[in-house]
Amino acid sequence: MSWTDERIATLKKLWEGGSTASQIAEELGGVSRNAVIGKAHRLGLKSRPSPVKANDKKKPASAAKSKPAPKAPPKKTAPAAAAPAPAPARPAPKNSAQANKRPPSNAVELAATAAGETIPKQPIPNKNPDLPKIVSVGPGGFLRQGPGDQQPPIPPAPPRRLVPAKPSPEIADKTSLLDLSDKVCRWPMGHPGEPDFHFCGADVNPGFPYCVEHCGRAFQAQLPRGSRRPPPPLPFGGPRVR
DNA sequence: CCCTGATTCGC
DNA sequence: GCGAATCAGG
């Protein structure tokens, strides 16, 4: 198998999406886990939480045995030991949203809450920890939910605009499958090609290809270039289950 | 043992 | 550029 543009795109998507190299290799087919990792590094995308590289401790106080890695070559090794890059520990999506509650599937819930309780017309700065932070209400009535809204972003809310989050280019034009129509939610469930692959099928949010709930997942507030948060909502049904 | 990603190096 | 072999941590 060769690395076609499409396969590279899939690799990037899955890699940045947090899939493991094994999962990606299985998804692509015809390549090994090592091939995926090698390719990923060659592409420049790299460094996801790796077990072997988790540590990078500093010894500010007791720096007694800090050595520039003597690196005893057991058999083969290039001596070229460049100065270790400073490599500031990357922001690390410490977003406690994960542990905080459950990330997705809140649109309907929030809507229900909003309907039953009094919603302030103007967002109150920071006085109401009980109510979830509501950014704005979409045209269809669903609540817009920015990627970082589970925990409010630290800096002042940057300007946002809605962009369609295309679930997958592969299944985007498979409307001929099953009985999709403009009346039912086209949100894919599961993985294409698998026996249990299907679409949501719920009543659509008028004007949208998805139901209200999936509109909340498909259309998300996009943060400015600088402050995007990579961790995308798990694609489709999440990681493969086999 | 299993898993993970990182790295090396012959091709 | 590719990826098997190898390394090393969890």
What does this protein look like?
There is one protein chain. With 242 residues, this protein is α+β, with helices and mostly antiparallel strands. Among the domains are: 5-43; 184-218, no CATH class. 23% of the residues lie in helices and 7% in strands. The chain has seven helices and six strands, in the order H-H-H-H-H-E-E-E-H-E-E-H-E. It has helices spanning 5-16, 21-28, 33-43, 97-100, 107-116, 169-172, 212-218, and strands at residues 136-137, 143-144, 161-164, 188-189, 198-199, 219-222. Helix 1 packs antiparallel against helix 2 (21-28) and helix 2 packs across helix 3. The longest helix is centred in the first third of the chain and has 12 residues, at 5-16. The chain binds a DNA duplex (11 and 10 nucleotides) through residues 2-3, 20-22, 31-42, 46-55, 76-78.
End-to-end CA span: 23 Å
Mean pLDDT: 59
Rg, rounded, reads 22 Å
Q: Helix count, per DSSP?
A: 7
What's the arrangement of strands in the largest beta sheet?
Answer: 1-2
Write down how many β-strands occur, each being a DSSP E stretch of 2 or more residues: 6
Helix-strand category: alpha+beta
Q: Catalogue the unreliable spans.
A: 55-129, 166-176, 228-235, 237-242
Q: What is the string of helix and strand elements?
A: HHHHHEEEHEEHE
Q: Roughly what percent helix? A: 10-25%
What proportion strand?
5-15%
Shape: elongated
The description of the largest β-sheet is: 2 strands, antiparallel
Organism: Pontixanthobacter luteolus
Biased composition (Pro residues): 150-161
InterPro entries: GcrA
Biased composition (Low complexity): 61-84
